[in-house]
């Protein structure tokens, strides 16, 4: 697959083209780009958290840049991977959705994480929180839609996909709240609002 075809596949998936998710599932050359899209989205949310410290907070703690931009990005991505693993295990082992291969699942799940990049805008006063929440909703929506299209054809199994995604996302959200907040500055995206008094 050429670079232009890969970018077109990613663009079509973000525009909710059903055929793109089927192609994405089987396109091995898209794996690295899906990883980069997810890491890039988390990094953008980290940039938003870092800028939040200078536009909204009265003062930033020592090590703010390292904590939010680098460690926050690292921890958020690790927690996302853990949540996605729970989603995968539930789909494959509990709901017995057939033909769910880990690498195929990872490509779709990683690309579904791209909306988290909207967390870049959390530093904008008045609308930052709403945009941050929309980034989480976007991750949930793209995950349910993309994984559902790629791995299930029946409406009953799509409910199983939605339940699996919700469980994985809730796991991730609960853990990220433990590493963000006063004294723990590893927040990215909307989670930086936990630093407010």
Secondary structure elements and their pairing?
Layout: H1 3-14, H2 18-26, H3 31-55, H4 64-94, H5 102-112, H6 128-151, H7 155-178, E1 180-181, E2 184-185
Antiparallel strand pairs: 1-2
Account of the 3D structure:
The protein has 197 residues and is mostly helical. It is 69% helix and 2% strand. A hairpin with a 2-residue loop joins strand 1 (180-181) and strand 2 (184-185). The radius of gyration is 17 Å and the shape is globular. The model has no long low-confidence stretch (mean pLDDT 89).
The 3D shape can be described as globular
Biggest sheet overview: 2 strands, antiparallel
Taken as a percent bin, the fraction of beta residues is under 5%
What is the β-strand count?
A: 2
Percentage of residues assigned to helices: 55-70%
Low-pLDDT windows of residues: none
Structural class: mainly alpha
Q: Rg from C-alpha positions?
A: 17 Å
As laid out across the biggest beta sheet, the strand order is: 1-2
How many helices? The count is 7
Mean pLDDT: 89
H and E string: HHHHHHHEE
**End-to-end distance, in Å?**
51 Å
How many discrete structural domains? 1
